[in-house]
Write a structure and sequence with these properties.
By secondary structure, this protein is mainly α. The protein has helices at about 20-25, 30-45, 70-85, 115-120, 140-155, 165-170, 175-180, 185-190, 195-200, 255-265, 275-290, 320-325, 330-335, 350-365, 370-375, 375-380, 395-405, 410-420, 430-445, 460-475, 480-495, 500-515, 520-530, 530-540; strands at about 10-15, 55-60, 95-100, 160, 205, 220-225, 230-235, 240-245, 250, 270, 300, 300-305, 345, 385. Strand 6 (about 220-225) and strand 7 (about 230-235) form a beta hairpin.
Length: about 550
């Protein structure tokens, strides 16, 4: 089950800012939008034809299941598009989500069923490879559908384009014939970057063989600009002439990328750090074709917990579905927003921290200056209409409550929460209800397998538990959370000293909750109950 958008149906706070405040904002989407404006002005000055809109593009290769990095590229590009629309409200924009689904399947991804089925169709265009899940006309159709479902669930405004459809419909024909005209110039750009063996037979055109259906990487022995054809030599020695138009050929991916920029007149596209050289080569090819290369942002890749780059063929790292199983969609958006040019690890245990950070951003927004609000990620996540924080309890608090109760059903957690806030219920706090469900799943999948309550190891620790138990016995219920928290601090100062309070709380979390970090114990005691808290202490005292 997925957690829905937690801010849905909430009263939000639309904000009004001046053009100067947008223009001077230090937030990275506005900085990128200003680069797009400069690009637009330079094209106009150079006499380039105005197509009537600014085109943002994202690219996706459906050779494997879409992963979280793919989502991140669309999300971040959308942030730049929104910022541009605020800076240039009279200019129309479009966002193309482009799928390179005419590429040949070169290897079978590790994280798929029916590998033998896929292996039998290696080198065919992805739209001609059977769906290993048996749900769609092809493997590409399956992956494209997954991507579109993710983008639709997040409410992105985009237009989906299929490489196969663009090639076969003839939309790229003019650009392909232009690439044929400058065939030698493109080769001169690419060949110096290749090894000796591949350089000897390189051509930007990959013929789609009529007999095998394969996208061939074979020598092109002749080109005919007037006829619009290439002649290639198959591995069996047979020479075949074929048009470069209407899907009979596709371009190798670097020229293909550049051709797309030229054919569609793309104004903005971001890409990963590993494609810096490809962007430079593509920009040269796009210029050779007669186009203007788009503005590019180079972002860092996400890596898994071991530091390996997340790969759609390996299936490592965290998936979009997994994140949304445990936490609201906006928390994922926040993680995507943060510092796109800095490498970040992406794994399950960071989710609670990100959820809590998102809630803090919502809480801070109303009291911030306009400049601070424009720099607040919540402004960009919600496109300027920032909701009030819908979560009356911190996510880490919910996780700790689930952990100590070993809750498997939401009713258990609600029983405790409604003691503290009897005005709340699953009916009038639906965002909290879904977050509780996510916390239960997160506990079962992540915390429970590693939860370990340790016994008090020293006389000092046993004396500390004795004093805490004595304090809890004095409580009647209904005491202020801050009063209880203050007493926890005083006990720590007496037993551990003021300088070692960090060690004190770590000891309490390890013995009472079973992990090294935890909630504010004053608030937790009021929610969980002082009698129940005393039982935790008593159990800890009995451990040896």
């Amino acid at each position: 089950m997925r957690l829905p958008n937690s801010s849905a149906n909430l009263a939000a706070m639309p904000q009004t800012f001046s053009p100067e405040q947008y223009l001077n904002s230090a937030a990275w989407p506005f900085a990128e939008a200003r680069r797009v404006i400069a690009h637009m002005e330079a094209k106009a000055k150079a006499g380039k034809k105005d197509k009537g809109y600014i085109l943002f593009e994202t690219g996706y290769g459906p050779s494997g299941l879409p992963h979280i990095g793919t989502f991140g590229e669309v999300f971040r590009t959308t942030m730049v598009r929104q910022a541009f629309e605020r800076l240039m409200p009279g200019v129309k924009t479009r966002l193309f989500a482009f799928s390179d689904d005419m590429d040949g399947l070169r290897k079978v991804p590790e994280n798929l069923p029916n590998k033998e089925l896929l292996k039998a169709h290696l080198n065919k265009p992805l739209t001609q490879v059977p769906d290993p899940f048996g749900q769609y006309p092809s493997f590409a159709h399956h992956n494209n559908a997954m991507l579109r479902r993710f983008l639709d669930d997040f409410g992105f405004a985009y237009e989906f384009l299929s490489s196969t459809e663009q090639y076969k419909s003839g939309i790229f024909n003019t650009a392909l014939l232009r690439a044929l005209e400058v065939h030698k110039e493109i080769c001169d750009i690419i060949v110096p970057t290749l090894g000796q063996e591949r350089a000897a037979t390189y051509s930007p055109f990959l013929p789609v063989d009529a007999e095998s259906g394969h996208v061939l990487q074979v020598p092109v022995i002749a080109t005919d600009v007037k006829k619009g054809t290439i002649t290639y030599r198959r591995t069996d020695g047979k020479e075949i002439e074929t048009p470069v138009t209407d899907g009979h050929c596709k371009l190798q991916w670097k020229p293909d990328w550049a051709m797309r920029w030229y054919a569609l007149d793309v104004d903005y596209e971001m890409s990963g750090k590993d494609l810096i050289d490809s962007v430079q080569l593509g920009s040269r090819i796009c210029t050779t074709l007669g186009g203007t290369p788009p503005v590019n942002l180079t972002y860092e890749h996400f890596v898994d917990e071991q530091g390996a780059k997340i790969s759609k063929s390996k299936g490592n790292g965290l998936t979009i579905e997994e994140w949304l199983t445990y936490a609201p969609a906006e928390s994922l958006s926040l993680y995507m927003y943060r510092t796109p040019t800095r490498q970040k690890k992406l794994y399950r245990t960071l989710i609670p921290t990100v959820v809590e950070e998102y809630a803090t951003l919502l809480d801070d927004f109303p009291t911030q200056t306009p400049e601070e609000q424009l720099d607040n990620p919540a402004f960009h996540i919600h496109n300027g209409t920032v909701p009030a924080n819908p979560l009356p309890f911190p996510y880490p608090m919910l996780l700790n409550l689930v952990s100590v109760t070993a809750a498997e059903k939401p009713e258990v957690v609600w029983n405790y929460l409604m003691r503290y806030r009897p005005d709340l219920s699953p009916q009038n706090a639906p965002q909290l209800a879904t977050l509780i469900e996510g916390a239960i799943r997160y506990y079962a999948d992540t915390i429970k397998p590693t939860q370990n309550h340790r016994a008090p190891a020293t006389a000092q620790e046993r004396a500390t538990l004795d004093e805490i138990a004595a304090f809890l016995k004095t409580l009647q219920g209904g005491e202020d959370a801050e009063l209880i928290q203050t007493e926890f601090y005083e006990i720590g100062k007496r037993q551990f000293s003021k300088e070692k309070l960090r060690d004190y709380f770590k000891f309490l979390y390890q013995t009472l909750l079973g992990f090294e970090n935890g909630p504010r114990l004053g608030t937790f005691t009021t929610v969980y109950g002082h009698k129940e808290m005393l039982e935790l202490v008593t159990r800890a005292q009995s451990r040896t």
